[in-house]
From TrEMBL:
The active site is at residue 108. It comes from Barrientosiimonas endolithica. Binds 2 magnesium ions per subunit. This is Ketol-acid reductoisomerase (NADP(+)). Belongs to the ketol-acid reductoisomerase family. It catalyses: (2R)-2,3-dihydroxy-3-methylbutanoate + NADP(+) = (2S)-2-acetolactate + NADPH + H(+); (2R,3R)-2,3-dihydroxy-3-methylpentanoate + NADP(+) = (S)-2-ethyl-2-hydroxy-3-oxobutanoate + NADPH + H(+). Its cofactor is Mg(2+). Mg(2+) 2 binds at residues 191, 227, 231.
Amino acid sequence: MAEMFYDDDADLSVIQGKKVAVIGYGSQGHAHALNLRDSGVDVRVGLAEGSKSKEKAENEGLPVKSVADAVKEADVVVILTPDQVQRTVYAEEIKPNLNEGAALLFGHGFNIRFDYIEPEAGSDVVMVAPKGPGHLVRREYVDGRGVPVIVAVEQDASGQAWDLAKSYAKAIGGLRAGGIKTTFTEETETDLFGEQAVLCGGASQLVQYGFETLVEAGYQPEVAYFECLHELKLIVDLMVEGGIAKQRWSVSDTAEYGDYVSGPRVIDERVKENMKAVLADVQNGTFAKRFIDDQDAGAPEFKAFREKAAQHPIEGTGKELRKLMAWVDTSQDTDYTEGSS
Ligand code: NDP
Ligand code: MG
Ligand code: MG
């Protein structure tokens, strides 16, 4: 069983005694900054010149500074910019302005695990990674609850890095739900594997192949969309509530029997072999290098993937069908080819 931490295992006064700079005010950044402030922590936000997020942070009454100025004031620097820009922000704006002994805190281990950031020996290097999107991290905190976090220490220069990490995890509400002790290596490798093999890559490809199989066999795309994409949410909700067992308990006996008969035919041993190859590329840094090299070149491969994916017929079918479903929020619907906000 993993080692767990809860509110009683952490001392909030550790982080309340520090000046904290949150760099980036996106999905995670806004949630961390606001939860810290509401937990009585002295927090400022560091953003690049002309940042789109600046007004949002100022409207919350948070002090907004350049990254350099925020870092100069800080005992703890929280790096919550996108992973692909962290190494440049660190090299150009954080490292030259970092106070002696100031700690670095991450929400994901990518840049440390793959050595894109190599911190000074005098810095504590810790991670507090919520297992949910930033908007949930904020909403749960406001409601008096929290999103579980995983917590790691890569470098313990002060001898007190664990106290800092746990105190921070408590301040953002994570220890109300619970914290799991991990390492930067375990967090980074499992996170990348999970999103590639199962959550994003695997699930998207499974849905597309199912849709294509029905449409190519002459069935209507609208019906195929419901069967292969829309209903997935109902199944996943059941899994989250009670595991695969609850999903099988809830569906019809026909569906449950078909699950046992055809699941292993569709996702067979070869798929597991493919997953092992994906994991190997995560572990040996091949994936990280391909991603960062492409980003450094202006992301030509990434943009081409995105464009091609947007042309898949399931997207057009879904866009029309979602208009019929009053309970599905389509108010923000775009072609989603410009990436996340
Ligand atoms: P977002 O893309 O939502 O937010 C990025 C923020 O960084 C924006 O405020 C952006 O400003 C700012 N930014 C971009 N470039 C720079 C720069 N050069 N200098 C200063 N600020 C910059 O990021 P996420 O919150 O998704 O991710 C942050 C970290 O959290 C990552 O390490 C990620 O892996 C991790 N994480 C994310 C989760 C999630 O649910 N999204 C879950 C768990 C961990 P602007 O608005 O101007 O573009
Ligand atoms: Mg991830
Ligand atoms: Mg059915």
